[in-house]
Design a protein that fits this description.
single chain, alpha/beta, 10-stranded mixed β-sheet, 3-stranded antiparallel β-sheet, 19 helices, 33% helix
Length: 611
């Protein structure tokens, strides 16, 4: 219930549980906990190795060099964890000195406590997902709370630490995470190795968080793409299981305050990007287990006017956007337009030959591609910010991974012939080195290319080598082949419903988002939820794009504001509402002011005040 008073239980019996033994739970309804958590482990993080920054602090997180492994070919659990935290902080937050993180908003304060990790499996899945709970020593027993989150994109288990951990841990909340069936548990098929729950390389299948039995196979298997589970269909359940794991971990860590259950512990869900979509999927689940949801720039699929699926618009962008950008003024840099112009012009020529754009020269073809994208719902600001995704080949990465996941294709059965492997200088697949392999779990984003793992394109040919494969990926959207029908079935399984009646939900989205355009996701989600009589609040943030982490690049920092301050502010206001000390955030179009060459301050952000 949104405004319920937290009931603190004083159990007559206290069950003392040793660390790293199977977690049990004694809470009664409405918890209904049935998940069997496998390979549980716990660790203590105090002094020079805290929960939030692994002892790195703000300066260590800002370092351009990752924390080193003493043995580059064999990370220890502590080393793997520290480097994963460094990598995920930098991928999500703008930590540049002028960006205001830690001074104007957010926190990198050291938080001592305990960390619990395990694997959980949703009904019908072949492979588990990771769950993790961080419990600060200063956990607030008088106002017990859990912040539950899901990693953004395809990131590993620390993928939302800058979102949920940075807000919840300093406030005395436990924070529960899930990698939602994606993550960086890569399998090296050449070496027959995977990763254990502690982030270290293992050759023992029984210890691996993700394993594929494929003797003689070569290359790399990536969990999001190759698990055969279409994890996105179950992202809401992944979030629910992470919350369940938090209650069990709290029972173990604080036996004198047990039992912890959904009736006496506040649970707030928060996530960004695909993690935002995951918490919205959790919001539709039944039962009075969740108290509020804050979803930032969510990738969410609904049936409503203007809505488009991620796979639809990503494949469209992969084909058309390189050409269309030649007709968009004032592109942020990088990508460096002068260097990219010949490549983008080649795409224009390919599109013209295929009959997908008109025009007798490159400028006319570019205008035709831009016009076609705008007619499909892309705004000028989204196209401009989307240049970053073109420059980093992100549209192809998304399309390759999600086609495999939606169709439940194996690592060697992609319908468009793509594979994943370490690559040599000529982009030919080769076995990975032990040093490369040791860093995958910490450094990877869960979606190739990256961390020394690349995409092998079997169809690459001609002056525009990516074109044949991209055309194949696009044909899966509405084609009638067996492979296309498999992908379409997988996409349909990810459709979101409205949140539970009475559940406070706040959606926050940047108007300039070029990866998950607001017009395709948040706007139709909010419209559909309100049509179903759900009270969903909506913050639309001007001059905000998708990637706070890239605001450290001077041109991006000068033109865009970060989105994280609004996520934290929405969490603050929702918490005040649940405490009976304020109203839910009101709808707002937030008229921000880019900082240019200045240091970010409150006048640039103009965060809506609490009522």
């Amino acid at each position: 219930m949104a405004n319920r008073l937290l009931r603190i239980c004083a159990p007559a019996l206290v069950l003392l549980l040793p660390a790293c033994v199977g977690l049990s739970h004694t809470a009664g309804p409405p918890s209904a906990m049935t998940t069997d958590f496998q390979h549980p482990r716990s660790s203590i993080h105090r002094g020079a190795d805290d929960l939030l920054t692994a002892g790195l602090g703000a300066e260590g997180l800002r370092s351009m060099a990752p924390p080193a492994f003493a043995d580059p070919a064999a990370a220890t659990p502590t080393e793997a964890r520290r480097r994963a935290i460094w990598s995920n902080w930098r991928g999500i937050a703008d930590l540049s000195p002028a960006g205001g993180y830690g001074t104007l908003y957010g926190s990198t304060v050291a938080v001592p406590g305990r960390e619990f990790q395990a694997l959980a499996t949703v009904p019908g899945a072949q492979h588990p997902h990771r769950v993790m709970v961080q419990i600060p020593d200063a956990f607030d027993r008088a106002a017990r709370c859990v912040v539950v989150t899901a990693s953004s994109g395809s990131r590993g288990i620390y993928g939302a630490i800058a979102v949920a951990g940075a807000w919840g841990l300093p406030r005395g909340c436990a924070v529960a995470y899930t990698d939602k069936g994606a993550g960086t548990d890569y399998v090296d098929l050449d070496a027959a190795t995977g990763f254990a729950v502690d982030g270290t390389v293992t050759a023992r299948p029984a210890e691996a968080a993700f394993h594929i039995d494929a003797p003689g196979a070569t290359g790399v298997a990536v969990k999001h793409a190759h698990s055969g589970d279409n994890p996105e269909a179950d992202w809401g359940l992944h979030v629910r299981q992470a919350a369940e794991f938090a209650l069990r971990a709290l029972d173990e860590a604080l036996p004198d305050a047990a039992p912890f259950d959904f009736a006496n512990t506040r649970v707030i869900a928060v996530g960004l990007s695909n993690g935002g979509g995951a918490v919205l999927r959790a919001a539709e689940l039944g039962g009075d287990w969740l108290d509020a949801v804050v979803a930032g720039e969510p990738s969410v699929h609904v049936e409503a006017s203007g809505a488009r699926t991620l796979y639809d618009y990503a494949t469209e962008a992969a084909l058309l956007m390189p050409c269309a950008l030649l007709a968009v003024d004032d592109l942020p840099q990088p990508p460096v337009a002068g260097q990219m112009a010949p490549v983008w012009a080649a795409r224009c020529a390919t599109l013209r030959e295929a009959g997908l754009v008109e025009g007798g020269d490159t400028p006319a073809q570019a205008r035709s591609a831009r016009d076609r994208m705008e007619a499909a719902g892309w705004t000028g600001p989204a196209l401009r910010a989307g240049a970053l995704s073109v420059g980093f080949d992100l549209w192809r990465s998304v399309a390759v991974t999600y086609a495999s996941a939606y169709g439940r294709f194996g690592f060697d059965a992609h319908p468009c012939g793509y594979r994943v492997a370490a690559l040599d200088a000529s982009l030919a697949p080769r076995p990975a080195t032990s040093t490369e392999r040791a860093g995958w779990w910490s450094d990877g984003s869960g979606i190739p290319p990256g961390a020394g793992v690349g995409i092998v394109d079997a169809r690459a040919a001609g002056p525009d080598p990516a074109w044949p494969g991209l055309r194949c990926l696009r044909a899966l959207v509405a084609g009638d082949s067996e492979a296309a029908r498999r992908v379409q079935t997988g996409v349909s399984a990810t459709r979101a419903g409205p949140p539970r009646v009475g559940l406070p939900v706040v959606v926050v989205h940047g108007i300039d988002d070029g990866l998950i355009p607001m017009a395709f996701s948040s706007v139709p989600y909010v419209d559909a939820a309100r049509a179903a009589d759900r009270d969903v609040r909506f913050w639309q943030v001007e001059n905000a794009q998708h990637f706070d982490g890239f605001l450290a690049l001077p041109d991006y920092g000068a033109r865009y504001v970060p989105l994280l301050p609004y996520i934290y502010a929405a969490l603050d206001q929702v918490t005040a509402y649940l405490d009976g000390e304020g109203a839910l955030p009101a709808d707002a179009r937030i008229r921000t002011r880019p900082r240019g060459g200045a240091t970010l301050d409150a006048s640039h952000l103009r965060v809506p005040p609490a009522d």
